[in-house]
Every structure is written in structure tokens, then in C-alpha cells.
């Protein structure tokens, strides 16, 4: 079984657009949307949810009104002003440090499991999709990403599928680390902008730290030839194989509005380039142990 994660140093580079196209082109795979903070692969794949569960990512503190004497010690101790005058803890302000429970002489403050989001297993026209939604302001996104990947691997093993394709989150933080750790190959989708170049450098260094093979692709390479050349030079200098250069095409937006991938919609040269890109990546996946 092979596992590919598609990431980008920043949002908006076209990572999910590429992933949705691969979903249409690949065979014998299960899909995982690891961008749990802002999942959007489902917008193109039109999934039908078959299974859903709450995500218990951590614990939170609660004040038992029957035991609380409203002495004010917890309010005075809280550095985050998370306890209001009614002695209710604001979950968005609370940092779960536990100091309030420590100073409470009434033993009225206890820790309990908290629901931080939901995760789903869905059917799509292109196979199974595991995806999730982290609650607003909730922590533990990396833990939820790991859960999504575990479920995708379980499905692949049960159905004897040979490939897992992960649509990873942007950036270089904890959820990205959770999305790339232990995979066979990472594809970085970048763009020829200054922020795109900067974030390509950061995320490629992260992959190098974990010793994960990396490929790169430039989306909308023709909108800034100078910056595209800078990306080519960086990839060459750092041993990163540049496997695709996708041109700018307004029809890509039309495909997204129609909720279709760029290979299932007439996107001109883009459709051909992305199809060749997948063929190249598929061959490279077979070479990595």
C-alpha cells in the first residue's frame, strides 16, 4: 500500500483542485481530507455520509453549581478571565490549565471529555472519503488528522486497496506534520508568488526534516515567469523533482462551480497537464519503498 499526501505552504495554491483530479484519475484508492480546520474536498467530490462520529480530542473543565460556594478563588486565579460572574467557564477563553480546579476548596471543578468536532466516512463517485470538521476555536487538529488517516488506512486494508491519497492542510504546523509523517511521498503544490515561494521553502524543509521524498508542482506558472524560474532554481538546488507546471485557465473556476474536477470538465490544457502529472506521480510512487 502506498500513501501520497498533497500539501502546500499556503492556502489557495490549488492543492485541493489537484487532489480532486487525482481522485478521478486514480484507481484502487481511498481518499482522506486532512485539512480538518477548513475541509473543502467534499465540495467537489459530493460525498454521501455513511458514518459519522464525534471527535473527543481532549478534556475541558466544568463547575458544578451544586457544589460551588461562589467564593471567587477560581476567578481570581484564572489568568484568562474564562470564568464569568455566574461561575460558568467560557470554553473559548479557557486554556485548560487546571489552576481553577487546583485552588477550588469546594472541589466543584472537574475535568470531563469534550467534543471537539466530527469525523465522517462517505461514499463519493470516486470511492470512499474520510473527512472531518474541527469545531470553531477547538484544539487538537493534529490529533484529528491522525484519526482521519488511521480510518483511511483501515478502509484500504479491509478493501485491499493499494493507495491512500491525502489532501493535506496548508502551512507547516501540527496538522501538516500529522498529515505527512510516515507517508511514501509528498507533493507540494505551489504558485509563483513571493508568499508561495517562501512557503514552498518552509514546507520542503519540514519534509526534509522527516526524510520524506518530495515532489513539487507549480500551479498557474505562466502568471509570473520570473517567480516560476525562481521556484525551478530552488527545486534544482535542493534536489526536489519538479513534476508539473500547470497553466492559468479561467475554466478551472467554472469546473469548481460545477463541482467537477479539472479532468472531468473541459479545462483545455490544464486537463491534459494534470493527467500527465498523475501518470508521472503514479510511476514515482512505485519506486519508493
Automatic annotation (TrEMBL):
Family matches, as CDD domains: SIMIBI_bact_arch
Sequence ranges assigned to domain 4Fe-4S ferredoxin-type in this UniProt record: 59-84, 85-114
Signal peptide: none
InterPro entries according to UniProt: 4Fe4S_Fe-S-bd (IPR017896), CobQ/CobB/MinD/ParA_Nub-bd_dom (IPR002586), P-loop_NTPase (IPR027417)
PANTHER family: 4FE-4S CLUSTER CONTAINING PARA FAMILY ATPASE PROTEIN, MIND SUPERFAMILY P-LOOP ATPASE CONTAINING AN INSERTED FERREDOXIN DOMAIN
Protein name per Swiss-Prot or TrEMBL: (4Fe-4S)-binding protein
Species in which this protein is naturally found: Candidatus Thiomargarita nelsonii
